[in-house]
Amino acid sequence: MATLRQSYIAGVGHYVPSRVVKNAELEPLLNTSDAWIQERTGIQERRWFEEGKDTTANMGANAARKALEMAGVAANDVQLIVFATLSPDYFFPGSGVLLQRELGINNNAPALDVRNQCSGFIYALSVADQFVRTGMYDTVLVVGSEIHSSGLDKSPNGRGVSVIFGDGAGAVVLRPSTEEGQGILSTHLHSQGEHAEELIVKEPSSNREERLQYILDNPQDLFPIMNGQNVFKHAVVRFPQVIKEALDQNGFQPTDIDMLIPHQANLRITQYVQQKMGLSDDKVFSNIQRYGNTTAASVPIALSEAVQEGKIKRGDLVCLAAFGSGFTWASALIKW
Ligand SMILES: CC(C)(COP(=O)(O)OP(=O)(O)OC[C@H]1O[C@@H](n2cnc3c(N)ncnc32)[C@H](O)[C@@H]1OP(=O)(O)O)[C@@H](O)C(=O)NCCC(=O)NCCS
Known about the structure:
It is found in: Cytoplasm. By secondary structure, the protein is α/β, with parallel strands linked by helices.
């Protein structure tokens, strides 16, 4: 078989809404405390969108503009959009076409939506990578964007979940590598559907004869529910596994990692993974303290900040990893 070319991340960018919601603001709503949230999750504050200003698609577009600028690519040169979100603007169509319109991309490029929750961005990156590897496209825009805050139970009933999630967006531009060995070395995707209901938003479901009436009778089913302890238990196994899988495939050891960008699920999970992999503090990136868990947006926001802060240099070995609802989990190993 002929050797396939590799893709590399030519540009990365992020956008977060301007409204900062500190833990203290949640205390009276959720019957929670700043101390409880920080101790269990590490989160100090998160961003909530502003209705009429931020949408899932236009936050993604704001992140994409920065990624395109860094890559030196015009919006109309994008040949494929891959958009990951669990909080789309509409039930249908997906947010990819809305982002295309927002960016003024008028070249009829396909827009593909990916629904894999916290693993969504790495799934989307993997899809994009395959298209570049095969030579079908040269310029692919990959976006993760989420608005959680409008869908959370902001009463004490929701406190186990609502403290965790935040809003934001991140994006990357993939292009074919020009240097041998540079770029995405491999991606690894997994899922285990038997745990589908462990972290879920049940409604609106198509499986109701009278969808609207069901929701009116059961409005609480519009909120996310989570078996937090079980999610935690699986996450601390799957993260190290899928990171190791990526390292093994490429002949690396954990100590070869220059920067691990884990999905920002919970600081305790990240610390457990760090310890399990034997990585020092400077090799693991965390910004969950400021943004909470932004599901499909969390990895590209973290990657974008790490690059902005100069924590990732040319030639570094960067590992992206995620775990979440589905269950799904994934990793990507990148020679930057
Ligand atoms: C969500 C999570 C922080 C909850 O922590 P936990 O230790 O499992 O907490 P539990 O749900 O067992 O609840 C323990 C107690 O805290 C209470 N509690 C739950 N949420 C609370 C909150 N926000 N504030 C205060 N108390 C809270 C519970 O009511 C319970 O009280 P009780 O002992 O009187 O019944 C933790 O399970 C977790 O991080 N799970 C992984 C979540 C995750 O990463 N999800 C995203 C995956 S992509």
